[in-house]
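Q: What does the assembled structure look like for these inputs?
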Amino acid sequence: MINRLTATLRLWFAPQRLREEGRTPDYRFSLANERTFLAWIRTALALVAGGMAVDQFLTGMRWGVRTAIAVALLAGGAVCAVRAVHHWMRCERAMRRGEDLPVSRFPALLGVATAMAALLVVAAVLLGQAGA
Amino acid sequence: MTAGGLVTPPGPGSGGPDRGAQRERTRLAWRRTTLTFTVAAGLAVRSAFEGSVAIGAVAAGAVVLVWIAFLVVAHRRVRELTELPVVGAAGGRLRSAALWTLALTALGVVLLR
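A:
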């Protein structure tokens, strides 16, 4: 467990070590993996932009609620960005070794969290309207 | 497309300048990502000038620097993608792109009102 964690962290900070493993896959697969990474980065950026937009535009809301939503969205963006690199690396390594691609619970978690955040904002906006 | 002879028949071992338009698609994905980054950076600059102008200028400057850094990473990767042979694994570039995204996120947290 600890060994695997340190091996992963080492790959994070020295991605060229990835090339020492297995065989180089068809570059089309690597580029597809890269585009998936970029799609996750865009997801992260959308969450970050959403957090900043909540902070700037939902000014009718109480400070605590507004900041809590913004911080949650920004934290989600940070997690997405970190996870994008991690997942890219795991996929690349699996392709080099000829293993199955890693499966992940993260997309499902993000989907549930996004739905809950949306409901929370709806509730906050409605309650804010009622209180005004 | 087919008239120009640019499309190579599919299948293993089919050569060609850009099989399956993989390189162009990846280049466009980088472009989309820089546009998304620009939108997020624009929002950050907007929130930088909510308070005092002096602090706002410093914060906006930091945001612009992070934005330029991300553009440089994307530009270098796009340059790599137009060269032959294609460098498949680009761990360093991707890690930098994620780091600048994290930097923008950190600035977003600092700029919360």
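The mean pLDDT of chain A is 87.
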